[in-house]
Amino acid sequence: MADPKGFLTTPRREWPRRPVEERVRDWDEVYVPGGLLPIISEQADRCMDCGVPFCHEACPLGNLIPEWNDLVSREDWRAAAERLHATNNFPEFTGRLCPAPCEAGCVLAINQPAVTIKNVECAIADKAWEEGFAAPAPPDRLSGRTVAVIGSGPTGLAAAQQLTRAGHTVAVYERDDRIGGLMRYGIPAFKMEKHHLERRVEQMRAEGTRFRTSTTVGQDVDAAELRSRYDAVVIATGATAWRKLPVPGRDLAGIHQAMEYLPLANRVCEGDLERSPLSAEGRHVVIVGGGDTGADCLGTAVRERAASVTQLDIYRKPGSERDEESEPWPTYPKLYRLSAAHEEAGALVTAPAAEADARLFAASTLRFEGDEEGRVRGLHLVEVNAERRPVPGTERTLPADLVLLALGFSGPDQGDGIIAQLGLELEPRGTIARGPDFATNVPGVFAAGDAARGQSLIVWAIAEGRAVAASVDRCLTGGTSRLPAPIGPYDRPMTV
User: Fold this and answer.
1) In a 10 Å sphere around its CB, with 0-12 CB exposed, 13-18 middle and 19+ buried, how is residue 477 labelled?
2) Measured CA angle at 340 (ends 336, 342), to 5 deg
3) Of 88, 120, 140, 322, which one is least surrounded by beta carbons within 10 A?
4) CA torsion, points 337, 342, 347, 349, in degrees to nearest 10?
């Protein structure tokens, strides 16, 4: 603990964002370049090095947060990077994309603003690359065993890296033309620039991991045949079956799923397209869904210069303070948070019908209306109460010629053939069934990440990848493994 009084004398300061007018004109990350390092050491000083650090419990990765906070406060970046990478394969991803449940579990957060754990993590990760502390770590010898990982999202990449470093020969199969899963085409570049992803992929290649892109297992390659060619298979395809909105007018043209819209914008940033076929430019956009994916659509539509953008959230507007009865510390509370996209929409007044930041809370979609050509032109909504029942007399219509559905995902896509070809058993909710060792009902086949857990956070995805790697390693080596297993398949976030 470098400064025993740091949490008393130093206020919380976060990585500053670039001015709204500047950042909405490009796709670069929203933060001020170089603006983190000048403040991060004193922010790390705010960590109290608690005897019982609940930030460990709040993070499924078991990150050694007080340890690397202390090292950062002393500017020992190499040691901090070692402690950070001991539990997290990709801290530059989580430092940018995770909503930071660790900060909700910070002991300081009981009565003060939490330590900026997420910013410290990001600073360590970036410094590690800058100083060469993230060199490839190939195995000393090969085991002679082979593993196929299906899916290159955070779960698949974490599992592949752990198994490669353990000495197994690993091939990652990805249906898209580039590695990364939703991190590549689902997450906008203004949240995480793709060079962070490219560096990790190159590191993994140097360690020995092999990548097979533009290969859809279940169609281009039979899943059962793939199983026969490898000693083990890890299914990490994610939860890609999007939830639907069964209301009148849903079939009108101009209504799309968020994951039809976001990948096209990302392909423009990659240079594959000059302009997205679903560009929001000049259009009245309504986003149905109040989560992070909806916010990603909001920030993207703002940068595409939409005529207006409104986001509908069926939940009531949360408060700015934790409700100690329903969401006591150290659980992750539902609070009113202003993401970069909402800040932009509020400053630019993209939604005149909304209160401040483009969101309409407690709003439920009733139906869509279209024109004579079958294109959507309006969305009818109604205010709902806490039980999500319509409030009489509150119906109104928003202009809409592009509607984006950001309602989340229900489980893995069963149309790709993997589940049927392998004969995998499913849970009632549609996810892949597995035992306490992450193994499915098919010998040698393991399931991890959102495909088995259901839609979750990136820290849970990476934790699943690390944990399934330990199970696969035990299977291949006869019952022992030196790989860490931070969680079990039935572990869940802390709740009341």
Assistant:
1) middle
2) 55
3) 140
4) -120
Closest C-alpha to 76, from 136, 15, 128, 114: 128
Per-residue buried b or exposed e for 163-187, using 16+ beta carbons within 10 Å of the residue's own CB = bbbbbbbbbbbbbbebbbbbbbbbb
Q: CB-based contacts of 232: which residues, under 8 Å, 6+ apart?
A: 145, 146, 147, 148, 444, 445, 446, 472, 475, 476
The first and second tokens of residue 403, run together, are 């509607």
Contact (CB, 8 A) for 81 and 120: no
- Assess contact for 153 and 180: CB atoms under 8 A: yes
- Of 353, 377, 357, the closest CA to residue 367 belongs to 377
Q: Is 478 exposed, middle or buried (0-12, 13-18, 19+ CB in 10 A)?
A: exposed
Other beta carbons within 10 angstroms of residue 296's beta carbon come to 24
pLDDT tens-place string over residues 387-399:
999 999 999 999 9
In angstroms, what CA-CA distances link 410 with 157, 289, 456?
Answer: 22, 14, 11
How far is the CA of 69 from the CAs of 7, 83, 220, 276, in angstroms?
A: 12, 10, 47, 42
Compute the distance between CA of residue 79 and CA of residue 449 in angstroms, rounded to an integer: 30
Strand pairing category for 363-370 and 409-411? unpaired
Q: What is the DSSP letter of 327?
A: S
> Which of 213, 122, 200 is closest to 164 using CA atoms?
200
Measured in whole angstroms, the distance separating CA 34 from the mean position of its chain's CA atoms is 24
Q: DSSP class of residue 16?
A: P
Number of H helices, E strands in the chain: 19, 15
**CA–CA separation, 58 vs 56, rounded Å?**
6
> Percent of the chain beyond pLDDT 90?
96
Q: What six digits make up the tokens of 389?
A: 């029942």
State whether the Cα torsion 368-371-374-377 is positive or negative. Answer: negative
Distance CA 263, CA 46 (A): 39
Give the Cα separation of 365 and 86 in Å (integer). 46
- In this predicted structure, what is the pLDDT of residue 233? 98
At 7, the amino acid letter reads F
